[in-house]
């Protein structure tokens, strides 16, 4: 389908460009959301008559998006979720969740503006891109943890999926103790073997 773009669309074109797109993309996204018009003589004339107004509205939306982006850029948001010992979430953090979190914090963001390829399914620090306008993008960090305390520790660089973080076990110390135990076991075994050999030697002498 041939359409006239009413705003810049990534990888397609700028305002006023006539481009060819798949029918489904046009019918399900571009046309119903007001991002494009069918390319015909009537709509070409309509676009040219309203071009100045369309460009002014776009500039206004871009300016508003830039202000939101300034407040969001690089900001970290703590997300508390239940998770297992390995850090896997009991559920996930979706685009809807992220939009609600940002909106609660005072930033007007819709789920369609959250560019998340796959839902977040593990604790950790996750960088997420927010597309506020076709020409305005920013990034935020989601600190997903089991509690606010763990989120603070995680932000400081601690790995919350390690045995030490979960149980308070020092894995290096535990490994060292295990190795020392193995050495002791080998020494005891060697001593027992030596004693057995000595005993056998005494029995042979007595006979």
TrEMBL record:
Residues 42-69 form a coiled coil. One of its GO terms (cellular component) is ribonucleoprotein complex. Keywords: Coiled coil, Ribonucleoprotein, Ribosomal protein, RNA-binding, rRNA-binding. Gene3D superfamilies: Ribosomal protein L9, C-terminal domain (3.10.430.100), Ribosomal protein L9, N-terminal domain (3.40.5.10). Residues 13-40 form the Ribosomal protein L9 domain. SUPFAM superfamilies: L9 N-domain-like (SSF55658), Ribosomal protein L9 C-domain (SSF55653). PROSITE patterns: RIBOSOMAL_L9. GO terms for molecular function: rRNA binding; structural constituent of ribosome. The keyword Nucleus does not apply. GO terms for biological process: translation. InterPro entries: Ribosomal_bL9, Ribosomal_bL9/RNase_H1_N, Ribosomal_bL9_bac/chp, Ribosomal_bL9_C, Ribosomal_bL9_C_sf, Ribosomal_bL9_N, Ribosomal_bL9_N_sf. Residues 181-207 are annotated as: Disordered. Belongs to the bacterial ribosomal protein bL9 family. Binds to the 23S rRNA. This is Large ribosomal subunit protein bL9. It comes from Oricola thermophila. The lineage of its organism: Bacteria, Pseudomonadati, Pseudomonadota, Alphaproteobacteria, Hyphomicrobiales. The gene is rplI.
